[in-house]
């Protein structure tokens, strides 16, 4: 495929949070190649602007000509122009080059409320709007462009109505960025002259690190559209990427004012997911196990397990496993997929991908449980594994079948027809190989995380399960008392099996358990990678 070549026309930000610098980062994060034509040279940092230098308009014209005379342009993102002659220069160039996608961020009013364009430049900018494919005004800018009084747009409904008016007069699509409104949830919209085309939800964070959000959103949107995304898919991707970029922005520690967003957090997370190095450090694990082996010699099981989790261990060996698994569990809990799930903002397409992969996984998981039923020597345990295998197919799969059947239209068809992913296949193969070839104790350890991790996450998620939660039925399933009871039973089986096994078997069981814990994390995260 061709990587979208996206031109940023914008002013500068020496501290990298906004303007051309943010555009370049955003274009690359969204999968494009960034080209840049600079307008104003802005001396600013996270605390504010100290000076602005405007080179002659001919310098901007020369930059644009240098780009378009040599490079085939797939999209243009226009940010800060600032002066009438700059606006005229860009307008002339757009009419000559006719880029297929033009996303115009009408930089007129800063988030802080400061006016960035004088009246004559605002009038000149209005003439540029019909050349845009998409407009991305903030709420104060939307008020100006629609002739509303300052502060009169106070709700999403009012913003959408104004955006529809602007779309009608310009012929462009208009993005409503509800982050500027004082509403609990953030909903971004794409609006045409006919009304809302698509919308995407996001979480509102209590953070000052939002500098450059508008620039970044516009640039990323231009790139996704140029890369072939539909309007709805592009908005969904950009909203989710921005949410992650804002969520982790404070960790950058850039400046002492309104800090920048973390444009690269998603890329770093996915880079970690793509690594092929061994998940488990065997030498370190052996040291941990040796330490605990010595510690547990002649020690009796404590009366209480001092762990603040919902489904407790059943003895010293499962306590050890839970302690070793805690880092993977906490990393899983912080994944964007689960963060969006608990807030109710998870994209239905992404949840459909998850449902499809989980349905495929459960077929393999049920076979693994059946293998344990065969090798179990205790009749009650054999019946338990057989029943659990049946439930995986009959009870849990029913929820998947209902969801996938109700989301089989064109919008979700790709998600509902996916083959098993590399993550799903790898996890299934791990379980089947362990349960088919290893000691019974090791097999129990391998399947336990699918009970224990799900049960723990289900209990945590139940605190966020409000009556009209879009994924309430799924959250109810893993908060079900019967599932919690079954999980406790598996923990008891493993505790007994490890107590009656030698050190080598316990070592293999621990490795199988931790490997499954990491597969669980990968499984939840994979829906965000499609």
The number of helices is 20
Count of distinct strands:
10
Proportion in helices: 55-70%
| Low-confidence parts | 297-308
Largest sheet entry: 8 strands, mixed
Strand order of the largest sheet: 2-1-5-6-7-8-9-10
General form: elongated
| Mean of pLDDT | 90
Share in β-strands: 5-15%
Which class best fits the helix and strand makeup? alpha/beta
CA-CA gap between termini = 16 Å
Order of helices and strands: EHEEEHEHEHEHHEEEHHHHHHHHHHHHHH
Q: Tell me the Rg in angstroms.
A: 27 Å
Q: What are the SSEs and their pairings?
A:
Elements: E1 5-10, H1 19-29, E2 33-38, E3 41-45, E4 48-53, H2 57-68, E5 75-78, H3 84-97, E6 102-104, H4 119-128, E7 134-135, H5 139-145, H6 156-170, E8 173-177, E9 186-192, E10 195-202, H7 213-226, H8 231-247, H9 265-274, H10 282-296, H11 316-333, H12 336-343, H13 348-375, H14 379-406, H15 413-416, H16 422-437, H17 440-462, H18 472-477, H19 481-499, H20 503-526
Parallel strand pairs: 1-2, 1-5, 5-6, 6-7, 7-8
Antiparallel strand pairs: 3-4, 8-9, 9-10
Helix pairs in contact: 1-7, 2-3, 3-4, 5-6, 7-8, 11-20, 13-14, 13-16, 13-17, 16-17, 16-20, 17-19, 17-20
Describe what you observe in this structure.
By secondary structure, the chain is of the alpha/beta class. It is built from 20 helices and ten strands. The protein has helices at 19-29, 57-68, 84-97, 119-128, 139-145, 156-170, 213-226, 231-247, 265-274, 282-296, 316-333, 336-343, 348-375, 379-406, 413-416, 422-437, 440-462, 472-477, 481-499, 503-526, and strands at residues 5-10, 33-38, 41-45, 48-53, 75-78, 102-104, 134-135, 173-177, 186-192, 195-202. An eight-stranded mixed β-sheet has the order 2-1-5-6-7-8-9-10, sandwiched between helices. The chain has a two-stranded antiparallel sheet with strand order 3-4. Helix 16 runs antiparallel to helix 20. The chain is elongated.
């Amino acid at each position: 495929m061709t990587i979208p070549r996206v031109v940023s026309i914008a002013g500068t930000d020496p501290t990298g949070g906004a303007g051309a610098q943010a555009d370049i980062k955003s274009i690359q994060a969204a999968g494009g190649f960034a080209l840049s034509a600079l307008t104003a040279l802005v001396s600013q940092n996270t605390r504010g602007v100290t000076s602005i230098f405007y080179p002659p308009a001919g310098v901007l014209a020369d930059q644009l000509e240098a780009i378009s005379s040599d490079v085939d342009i797939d999209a243009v993102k226009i940010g800060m122009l600032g002066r009438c002659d700059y606006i005229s220069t860009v307008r002339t160039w757009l009419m000559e080059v006719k880029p297929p996608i033009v996303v115009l961020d009408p930089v007129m009013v800063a988030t802080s409320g400061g006016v960035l364009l004088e009246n004559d430049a605002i009038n000149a900018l209005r003439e540029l709007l019909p050349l845009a494919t998409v407009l991305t005004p903030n709420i104060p800018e939307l008020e100006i462009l629609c002739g509303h009084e300052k502060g009169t747009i106070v709700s999403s409904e009012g913003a959408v109505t104004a955006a529809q008016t602007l779309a009608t007069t310009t012929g462009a699509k208009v993005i409503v960025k509800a982050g500027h409104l004082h509403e609990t949830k953030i909903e971004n919209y794409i609006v045409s002259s006919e009304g809302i085309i698509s919308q995407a939800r996001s979480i509102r964070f209590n953070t000052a690190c939002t500098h450059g959000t508008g620039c970044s959103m516009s640039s990323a949107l231009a790139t996704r559209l140029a890369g072939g995304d539909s309007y709805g898919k592009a908005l969904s991707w950009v909203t989710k990427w921005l949410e992650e970029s804002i969520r982790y922005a404070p960790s950058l520690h850039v400046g002492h004012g309104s800090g920048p967003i973390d444009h690269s957090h998603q890329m770093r997370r996915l880079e970690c997911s793509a690594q092929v190095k061994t998940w488990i450090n065997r030498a370190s694990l052996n040291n941990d196990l040796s330490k605990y082996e010595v510690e547990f010699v002649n020690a009796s099981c404590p009366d209480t397990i001092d762990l603040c989790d919902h489904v407790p261990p059943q003895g010293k060996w499962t306590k050890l496993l839970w302690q070793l698994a805690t880092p993977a569990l906490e990393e899983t809990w912080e994944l964007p997929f689960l963060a969006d799930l608990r807030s109710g903002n998870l994209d239905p397409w992404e949840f459909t991908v998850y449902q499809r992969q989980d349905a495929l996984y459960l077929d393999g998981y049920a076979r693994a449980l059946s293998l344990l039923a065969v090798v179990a020597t205790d009749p009650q345990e054999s019946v338990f594994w057989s029943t659990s295998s049946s439930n995986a197919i009959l009870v849990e799969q029913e929820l998947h079948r209902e969801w996938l059947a109700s989301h089989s239209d064109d919008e979700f068809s790709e998600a509902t027809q996916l083959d098993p992913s590399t993550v799903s296949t790898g996890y299934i193969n791990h379980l089947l190989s362990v349960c088919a070839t290893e000691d019974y104790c090791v097999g129990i350890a391998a399947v336990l995380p699918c009970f224990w991790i799900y049960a723990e996450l289900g209990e945590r998620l139940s605190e966020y399960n409000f009556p009209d939660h879009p994924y309430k039925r799924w959250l109810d399933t893993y908060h079900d008392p019967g599932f919690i009871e079954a999980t406790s039973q598996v923990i008891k089986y493993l505790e007994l099996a490890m107590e009656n096994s030698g050190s080598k078997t316990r070592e293999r069981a621990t490795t199988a358990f931790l490997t499954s814990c990491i597969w669980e994390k990968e499984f939840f995260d994979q829906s965000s990678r499609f």
